[in-house]
Design brief:
Layout: E1 9-20, E2 23-30, E3 44-48, E4 54-58, E5 69-74, H1 82-88, E6 95-102, E7 113-119, H2 123-135, E8 140-146, H3 155-159, E9 166-170, H4 181-186, E10 192-197, H5 200-209, E11 217-220, E12 240-244, E13 249-253, H6 259-265, E14 283-288, E15 291-292, H7 300-305, E16 308-310, E17 315-316, E18 320-323
Parallel strand pairs: 7-8, 7-10, 8-9, 10-11, 12-18
Antiparallel strand pairs: 1-2, 1-6, 2-5, 3-4, 3-6, 12-13, 14-16, 14-18, 15-17
The structure holds FE2/S2 (inorganic) cluster (FES).
Length: 325
Amino acid sequence: MTNNPLYQQPLRVSRISAEAKDVCVVELTALDNGELAPFTPGAHLELMLGNGLIRHYSLLNDCSERHRYLIAVGLSEDSRGGSRFIHGSLRQNDVINARPPRNNFELDPHAERYCFVAGGIGITPILAMIHWCQRNNRPWRLIYSVRSLQRAAYYEPLSQLDPARVQWHVTDQQGGRHLDARAVIDSLASDEQLYCCGPSPLMSAIRDAGAAVASQLHFEWFAAPAQPEAETLGDGSGAFDLQLLRSGRTLRVEAEQSILEALEASGLEPPFACRAGVCRTCETRVCAGQPDHRDMVLSDEERAAGDCLLICVSRSLSPSLALDL
Ligand code: FES
């Protein structure tokens, strides 16, 4: 075991099973069945899939378990390869490499009460949080929005819990009507912390409805929500220059291009995974210029420091940005 975040550990797929329609659960264990690196509720695992893709999946099991990691993967209709690979090609006893768990969705252990809002496969980090609450005897409730009960991962165990704790919203049974975000926010007590994970439209609706109680809201984004264009981007056209200090090169990032795409177009191969500003794999040091942060994971302090950015989504507020590349 190591604290090096770049360390990759081979893990065995000890079990893979169907959990709901288009949802499978994968159990991963150490090759010697020994203890795994610890994690906290809300953490995710970075997996190097056999088809060359890097993907992040939230850990759903109780973090007191040290012998296994559990992830659930929904088959995405617009899969860019990750969920299709896991559903179609991954088999029991396969070995895949993983980086140690990281957490961008930390649960505040000192909150008085917890309100969890999950949409679809977004239930996965919430399950780890519920395990923690149950084990520590902390008050919690869950609002779980699913398209249909057939697609609801962990329907059985959740439906056996105290119905006062678990509120279901089944869109198909509601004539296609989505969860009422305003009603969720109106039900939030002043001493409750809300943790939300699900599709971007659900999280955006909760975020917008809860603007007045933003300090009580916490989100795990799968993809950065659409953001308005900054008026002062780069030189005003939306394009900007990139100085690569290590190689001495200068590149142009066009308005419709990400920094990552501009680097790739010039033949460079910077590391990336989500390409959506939610995993930090592409984090790069900024040496000069003013970043326009558009990710969902940097802290307020990191944004204010302005010395790093996630090149898959973030841009420049200054005409030129110098990077440690
Ligand atoms: Fe995931 Fe950039 S590749 S944050």
